[in-house]
Design brief:
Layout (H helix, E strand, L loop, with lengths): L4 E6 L5 H10 L3 E6 L11 H14 L3 E5 L3 H9 L3 E6 L17 E5 L2 H9 L5 E3 L6 H4 L6 H7 L1 E6 L19 H15 L7 H4 L2 H10 L12 H27 L4 E4 L11 E2 L8 H7 L1 E6 L11 H8 L4 E4 L15 E3 L2 H12 L2 H18 L2 H11 L1
Parallel strand pairs: 1-2, 1-3, 3-4, 4-5, 5-6, 7-8, 7-10, 8-9, 10-11, 11-12
Helix pairs in contact: 2-3, 7-10, 10-13, 12-14
Length: 391
Amino acid sequence: MDKDIILFLEWDSFGNRYIIPIFESMGYGIEKMPFLFQEEDARSSEELAGRVANRILEVKPAFVFSFNYFPTAAIACKACRTKYVSWIYDSPFIMAYSQTALLETNRIFHFDSTEVARLQGLGVKNIFYLPMGAAADVYDTLEPTASDHAAYESQITFIGSTYSETHNHMFRHLAELDEYTKGYVDGLLQTQLQLYGMDVIEPALTPDIVERIQKVCPVYAQGDGMETAEWVLANYFLLRKVTAMERRKLLELLAEEFQVRLFTPERTPDLPKVLNMGKADYYERAPIAIKCAKINLNISLRSIHSGMPLRALDILGCGGFLLTNYQQDFLDYFEPGKDFVYYESMEHALELCRYYLTHEDERLAIAASGYRKAKETLSYGRQVEKMLSQI
């Protein structure tokens, strides 16, 4: 009997190496189709949708799969009466707000429960909450060498972008705002910087403030989508600015007292006491860096409203000690103080680092408990089983 085929839309996504063997172990054959959405209009290109549809007709798959959601793929699947299964791990992800998300052939999985509830409220019926997987089985095979420890060992490690102003050109528009709007926005940014688990920026963007911002910052909703201008400004612009502020300030604060290694492709001249290690390859270098750190830091992108970032699950899956900002979805699977630790302010993060760097037994016990729980409850195999049960 022939295997059921999955048409796998392949792009440079985290998780490709982990999920394909899981699908294959469940008896599926994989047919890959390069999907270079960064180079094409994955939201509205008729030509791209046509190529996907032609490939569906050739392969006759059980379903089409992609990490993240692409309207052109949804259109192709609807035309071919084939299910389109997508697993979103980015937030914000504006293409999920395309009207195509309403198509009945979709099965959309999203790692952030808040975004799931929001999209359900907009009428998206076939969207489900599904945290990303922890590839603990793979990470178990990666053991740091003596030279790895010499190169990467640290008291605190953070892997991720600093969202510096040079990297995010939209930030320069803040200086161009009129004085009233600039003061209003600065107040919002400073307020949000102090709050976790609560978003104040989008509700505070009144029509007048939105209009004032748009005069210098041309950010608008797409015409074919369900998102609002307020959502776009808050999630793609202002919350990213809050994240940049938090990451810089927290790394700077911790580096005054501890050895901090930062793995990022960006230059960080404004963080002279932080050891910039350059980019960490996701599959090879990042897990080794996590395993060599005493404390692994997660500072969530603020547009991830409640979800567990993939970075955090990678840390837990590697057996690393996770210190993170508060994210509600962690509490669905993990116990604070037993499996991971969260901070409530930058000063609190500093206190926690002082404590756990001097209480090694507790730190190692928490890391071990978080690893066991991640491996048992959030493996890629378990998450794919949950996904298939909804398909």
